[in-house]
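Technical annex, item 7. During the second reporting period the consortium partners agreed on a shared format for inverse folding records so that results from different sites could be compared directly. Each record opens with the tokenized structure and is followed by the designed sequence. A conforming record, contributed by the partner at site C, is shown below for reference.
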């Protein structure tokens, strides 16, 4: 268990088989209405396990299921509207609970529906991707996308509880697993050099999806995210460090062709570039940046800029990043393994240089 403190504390439980543990899943339940939200890939695999477990523990509960089409394209206001309509159809009262069973798309949309229904009801996160287990299910950010951009409408709404069942990662596509591993490496890079060493020694076990290795990686990642989020719940300062690799990564995601890198892959490239930028600015050693690149590569993640991306176009995207401030380019930079800092006014020349030699 990892405890997340703050105004509304909650626990993250991690382990194989948790989704079948009805008593554990039902413990946060206050009322008699449950809406299980999932997507079209995950629901056929795991919705019955969760429904049976909850019904066994709480036969008095009225439970409906709402299934989104799988994929980012469903994270819309229309999908949100359908989810709250499902709460209305259920007759959900103020003590109802939304269970979000899926990746970050389901977690963000279901969390936002819970944040808004009757001005806020409980949400329990049941993350089924590694990315959702180590990132999106923890920290209370919920949102949907608009045509104008990702995550533009949302709310801070911490979950009541998080249950990360490592056994469901066996059905996760390889590419999605590696995308989650990029975010896992990120926690080591920004906060924990010892964790980077541990990861380097467990690459095979993690790629083979061994429960014990996965549980350890998830627990250590969540502990770092929880500590940072606890100190800065509304992203006024330190929480920005979680964006290490993301300024480059978001620009790559926005600039590339439609079937390019996924988020985690783009962040992997972004971390390599950010580390090289730090080395170029004299903050980190070249050898450390190179070691980070090698670790990501051993996890099967890309470490080079995809062909055909124009450095100038990428810099222009970075200026538009919603986390950018007025003036110069803002980056999370690296002081070497386990240490990161925010740099407000990074010279554009240095950024272009790093992009040109990537
Ligand atoms: P996702 O939810 O789209 O899941 C990826 C794919 O894996 C989907 O096709 C899904 O159906 C499938 N899948 C999920 N679990 C599976 C399983 N166990 N077995 C087989 N298939 C499975 O994507 P994601 O990477 O989990 O999340 C990305 C989203 O998370 C983005 O919308 C992003 O904005 C959001 N996000 C939010 C936060 C936050 O703090 N709230 C942080 C990071 C990312
Ligand atoms: Zn990310």
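Designed sequence (site C submission):
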């Amino acid at each position: 268990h990892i405890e997340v403190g703050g105004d509304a504390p909650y626990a993250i439980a991690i382990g194989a088989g948790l989704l079948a543990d009805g008593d554990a899943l039902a413990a946060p339940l206050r009322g008699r209405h449950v809406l299980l939200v999932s997507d079209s890939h995950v629901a056929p695999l795991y919705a019955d396990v969760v429904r049976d477990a909850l019904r066994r523990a709480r036969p008095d509960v009225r439970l409906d299921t709402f299934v989104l089409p799988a994929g980012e394209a469903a994270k819309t206001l229309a999908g949100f509207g359908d989810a709250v309509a499902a709460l209305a159809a259920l007759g959900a009262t103020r003590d109802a609970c939304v269970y979000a069973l899926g990746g970050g798309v389901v977690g963000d949309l279901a969390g936002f529906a819970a944040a808004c229904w009757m001005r806020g009801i409980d949400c329990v996160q049941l993350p089924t991707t590694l990315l959702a287990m180590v990132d999106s299910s923890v920290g209370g950010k919920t949102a949907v996308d608009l045509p104008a951009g990702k995550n533009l409408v949302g709310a801070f709404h911490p979950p009541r509880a998080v249950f990360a069942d490592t056994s469901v990662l066996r059905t996760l596509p390889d590419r999605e697993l590696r995308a989650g591993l990029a975010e896992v490496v990120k926690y080591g890079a920004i906060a924990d050099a010892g964790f980077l060493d541990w990861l380097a020694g467990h690459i095979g076990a993690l790629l083979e999806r061994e429960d014990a290795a996965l549980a350890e990686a998830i627990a250590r990642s969540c502990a770092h995210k929880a500590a940072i989020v606890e100190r800065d719940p509304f992203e006024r300062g330190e929480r920005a460090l979680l964006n290490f690799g993301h300024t480059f990564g978001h620009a790559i995601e926005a600039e590339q062709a439609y079937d390019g890198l996924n988020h985690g892959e783009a962040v992997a490239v972004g971390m390599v570039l950010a580390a090289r930028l730090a080395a170029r600015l004299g903050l980190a050693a070249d050898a450390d940046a190179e070691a980070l690149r090698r670790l990501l590569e051993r996890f099967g993640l890309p470490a080079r800029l995809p062909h055909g991306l124009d450095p100038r176009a990428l810099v222009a995207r970075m200026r538009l990043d919603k986390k950018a401030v007025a003036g110069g380019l803002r980056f999370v930079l690296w002081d070497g393994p386990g240490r990161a800092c925010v740099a407000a006014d990074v010279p554009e020349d240095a950024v272009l240089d790093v992009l040109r030699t990537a």
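Residues 183, 246, 263, 267 surround zinc ion (ligand 2) (CB under 6 Å). The two ends are 40 Å apart (CA to CA). All partners now use this format for quarterly exchanges.
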